Amino acid sequence: MIKVAVCGALGKMGKEVVNAVNNCPDTELAAQIDITGDCFKTIEDAQKNSQIDVLVDFTQPKSIYENAKYCLTHGIKIVIGTTGLTDEQVEELKKLSKENNTGCFIAPNFSTGAVLMMMFAQTAAKYFDNAEIIELHHNQKKDAPSGTAIKTAQLMAQAKESFTCGNCAETETLKGARGANSYSNIHIHSVRMPGFMASQEVIFGSNGQTLTVRHDSTDRKCYMQGVLLAVKYVFDNNNFVYGLENILS
User: Fold this and answer.
1) So which residues are the catalytic ones?
2) pTM value?
């Protein structure tokens, strides 16, 4: 039985993770951690009072890095669903995971459909010289662009150096109109609006045609299969993994 602690347990995603852990025959809820409510306030307090095999973190961008460093230096394997980590922070966590022989699993998105969308985009990137990403989330999401958009751009960038082939020299009359220029010149546009939960489309273009790959999440339950897969994987392995696609078979 895998003893799981949930950090950010009273948030929208945290509540779903708690339910998923309680309903999975292979996992047991060891501790709930949250700065509000009747929970442990810190990971340290939870560790003193509970046996924790794996901690699942769905908190906030401002706290995830310190949470992850604490876990990896105190023998707690961690599954990270919180987005907002910089490339440098991800590299540091990878280093800490290796140094402490403690598993760390980071996934910008735990929805199997979203992961397939990223994989399809990575495949399509080989055949198109122009592409942009539009990601749409609810207006309570604090980081932009989303971790899913960043991961998608990273995967696509493996195909070529630039996705703005043939574009003319541009002048933004309103700053930011063209979105953020990311890896391999893939422009990412972030929408924050009530009514959305999490959606993303990747638009490819060439002379005479466009291709759009899109995924929509309409219920947070869609992430739970991926979360539990990650928990089980990190329980059995001590390596560092970035992206759910690495363990899908």
Assistant:
1) 137, 141
2) 0.80
